[in-house]
Design brief:
85 residues; mainly alpha
Amino acid sequence: MATNYNPEYREGKVAAAIEKQTAKIPSDIYLWTAVGCMAISATLQILGKKKTSLFIGQWPPAFLIMGLYNKLVKLEGTDGYHQNP
């Protein structure tokens, strides 16, 4: 059980359901998706499709943040504690 767990501020049902589903996705999927977006963006930049390249080039940070969230959910679980120790 986490030492700084506060039962007054628990996650809602929707957040807990999302965490349960996202925890099933391997964390490296987010990393490779971000790397793939960078490669596609670089390729488009070389091909002269600047606007599309910039659009896709903005996706990697979002994927990396989702991967970080995914990892935290796997390590800490909903509300930072495990109900069945």
